[in-house]
Each structure stands twice: as structure tokens, then as C-alpha cells.
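Homework-ish question, so no full write-ups if that breaks the rules, but can someone show me the predicted structure for this set?
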Amino acid sequence: MDAIDKVLWNTRLHYLGMAARTTEPVLKLAVLTCMDARVDVSGLLGLRPGDAHVIRNAGGRVTDDVLRSLLISQAILSTREIMLIHHTDCALGRMTQAQLAERITAATGQFVTEDLGTFSDPIQSIVQDIERLKEAPRLANRDKIRGFMYDLQANNLKEIVA
Amino acid sequence: MDAIDKVLWNTRLHYLGMAARTTEPVLKLAVLTCMDARVDVSGLLGLRPGDAHVIRNAGGRVTDDVLRSLLISQAILSTREIMLIHHTDCALGRMTQAQLAERITAATGQFVTEDLGTFSDPIQSIVQDIERLKEAPRLANRDKIRGFMYDLQANNLKEIVA
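A: Not a homework solution, just the prediction itself:
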């Protein structure tokens, strides 16, 4: 059975309830984090349906697409805070751009020229992404942007202050 | 109390356990969906920590950043299936690019020129995004890409076949 069929079967148990009616996030919060399968955002942060926007990509990096999403989140859907969460043991921190590109070429035969979002210093990647957010003029609300490192082994969040 | 402080307090209740050690998603699945606060991905699909990559942006649209994430997901972290989920009552389907840009300018004073990812036909947006994925040569595994509409009111997923 394909994975998609398995998770489709699980949907029969889900109940969204009243939350289905709330368009604007109750906590006025947008969370940006990594796509990593071990990052269980709602479990970790205790988010219920309707609470917060959740934006995820490889690394939880601030890209043009993330800024597009946050722009809409703040200007149209009234969020005011941004919580950035990177995590330990991230694939983008274990390899350099060159190593990652080489692995991708080996797997697909395709050459990679764009920035893959790798970083050598995990703390610095958080500091850099917070700065990118704070310097984005299209984001109306930039006074409550905070960054965290999620330690998967210790299972805790540590705030990173630039 | 800020929302970030509230959710930080919740992290004390979370336990990741064995899942902390599994880098490659157990289901070899990547899910792409919208950042919308009402889309509780793990609750809806019954995903446990470690099961699947989850990529989210405004609309669950296939952008360059999404392709970057999926490229890494497949070539480095061995996922094989892609599940695309859009939902009813999406802000990007309720407004045109011009209306959304106008609202953003009114809120921030900033002009918007880039594509915000709006769509007029929700079903067509899924068909279009599936096509974009299937036509992406850098994705090694394109035989199991399926798209769904998540009806927030009825609380079910309906498969969309092109």
C-alpha cells in the first residue's frame, strides 16, 4: 500500500470542528520551520487547529517564497509575531552546497546551480534568517521576531539572540 | 503574554522519543500544503514524528523554493511520494492578484510586483501544481504524485485527478 493511501485512511479519524470557521490565526502567530519529519510543530508547540500559520521548507530558511507567505500572513490575515525554528541534525547543516549538489547530481543526473540553503554554523543560520526577516520592508510587523534552535535529542527549544 | 511565550510553555509537554533518531521519513512521503492555521497536517493525516516531510507555504503552491525542498527530500532523504493538499476557503482563491496586492499596499505602503500565487479556480490550481511537479526534471520520483482538495467544512479530502 502506498504511503498516500495509508494517510488517507487516517483522515477518517480527524475532526476539525469549530476551527474550520476561523480564517485568521487565533494566536496571530506565524511559525517558520524545517520540513524535517521529526519536527512535529503542532505537538511541540501545543498548537490547535486555527492557532497559527505554519510555513515549512528545507532548513526553515528565509527565501523569497517564505517572504511571500509572511507578507500575506501579516497584511491579509493579521498575524503579528514570527517564530523561527531550526533544529539539530539538519541535512542542510551536515553538507556543504558542493557536497549536496554532488549527491543530487549522482541521484538524478541533474546539475544544481541554485542556492540549496546549506549552512556551516547552525546558530549563525538562525541569526542570519532573523536578520533577513527584520530587514524585510514588506513585513508590517517586525518587532516580535524570535529565533530558536530545537534540539531533537534533548527535545527542547533554546532561544537564539543575535 | 506574547503568543511565542505561550507556545514555548507548551513545549514542556512534548516528547519526541525514538523518532529523534530517524533522519529519513519512515513513510518516504513528502506532503505539500498551505500554511493555513486550520490545516492540522499531522492530525489530519495521522502522521507521527518521523513519518513524512511537510512543506508549507501560502496556498501550498509549487514554487522554486518548494522544488528546492523536494529536490533535497527525494535525492538526499529518500522520499518517493508527493501528496499535494489545497483547501477550501483559501485566501489566495478569494482574491485576485490585483486585489491582494492592493490590500498589501494599503496595509504596508509597499508595492507588490511578484506573483502572489492567487488562483480563480481551486481545482485548476491543484491540477496546475501537479503538472508543475510532474514536469520537474530534478525530481527523481514522479510516478506517485497525487493532489487533493481538503474541505474544511466537511472535513474530508477529495482526490483531484487531472
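Now go work out the reasoning yourself. Hint: The first helix of chain A runs from residue 3 to 10.
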